[in-house]
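Box 3.1 — From sequence to structure: F-box domain-containing protein
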Amino acid sequence: MVASLTTLPAELLAQILSRETGITSLDISNCSLVCRRLYNLTVDRKTKYSFHVDHRSQSAWHLIRCILSNPTVGTRIQTIVLTWHRRRPGQSTTWTPQWIWRSQESAQIREICKKWGIYEFLYPVIEDGFDSEALLPLLLCLTPNLESLDLGNISPGVIYGRFSANAAVKVFKACDRGHLAQNYKVRHNADEGVYFDCRWGASYRRKVLWFHTILSLNICLPGMSNLKHFCHGYVASAQTGGERQGWPAKYVIKVLLLPKIETAYFHGAARSEHTRIERQRQPLSAAIPRSLAGKKSTIKNLEFVYCDLEDEDYSTIAKLTGSLEKLVCPIPPPLWFHLRTRGAYVAKVFAENNKDTLKRSNISTPQLGHRSRRLSYITDVYFPFKESDEREDREAAAKQHQENKEGLDYIASRIWNDDEYADDEYEEEGDWEPCDHEFECHCEDFLFDESSSEGYEMEGEDWWQQQRAIDAEVALRTRDVKGTKKRSHFVN
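Predicted structure (token representation):
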């Protein structure tokens, strides 16, 4: 006889509901609704949350509303993983509608933003209800026990893919549920990043996230104060045919200077300043605040993949470390000819600054292939929308294929088919004789016999002008084809 779950000892139940078993947050939520005993065992359990940016389910917005009404929910979140679902101009199913806050919720958000110094630049975007990535800094204000943050392969633009300013305005007007649609204006159609009005003033943010902005603040948000594990993927973009694009490498310094950071993974950081037109390359040493000059990072495991950094940049990062235990820095294909010198320099400079903790055997600078390792998400993060999204994408593709097929069939039905009304009394190919064209005979060659036009000749007029006048007096029989009328044949 199988024992009931509620009859098991508290120690065994606590082990079943622990993180090591890989039980999802949804299962934990269902268990907490069974009885008071299970609720008490799950109320203090640390949870993992998957933050779906701009997903049509609007799960991030619902989470913020839940935490505003019950702040204890935010204290239980220990891991956040971001997945990106930006709007695509060619797929209307991805056009996530605008969310609207209640007046009480807006007042709470204003107080939180003012408290942590993010009101001026972030609150207008949160209030507008379009870019859910702007909710991440707000969530970090409500999750003081956060230890792991995985940004995934980021998509900074509010709209993904190749598009014009007019297409962007069309998308936002379709998603607008308030009174803001009339404010969207096209400024420069050549630049897909410039289509917002004054409320979206910082419209040149094509490579910068709102999360990057809060890293530049002088204060550390509650969700960043206890952060131990951090992961930043490359910029997922279709602007260059799917190639990787860099994000500003100065934010690497900001992450390494977090109070309790231990593990960091950086993919696709570039020293180029993409927020400027001239794209100047500034050294990473300029990103270190004066107030933090000389501070050592608590980082222990560090990994760089496809990062566009120079030797002096690696030297700046190495000087920040002092307790590093493991370093992985693959050399990308463009720098293969510097494989020995670059790899040796990176290993040397980090070993010199971490003499007591970093062993040579824990330093890896291999040659990176053209197909680098893609960023893999945490395996036990619950992603409930993956299967439904794939199913909806397949249904949308099948619907588009059917519409294209029906359109081709309709076009084919409007094309005149001469074989349908051709005469059945055509002569054999060897018995062919020239046609006098007195009736519509569907022949392709016009062989005119001058002797047949003697009865039609009139002084001062050519034969074809006389024939045109005769044809104009002949009644025509027509047939209907898809609502239009086509000429069938002459009737004497």
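Summary of the box: Residues 1-45 form one domain.
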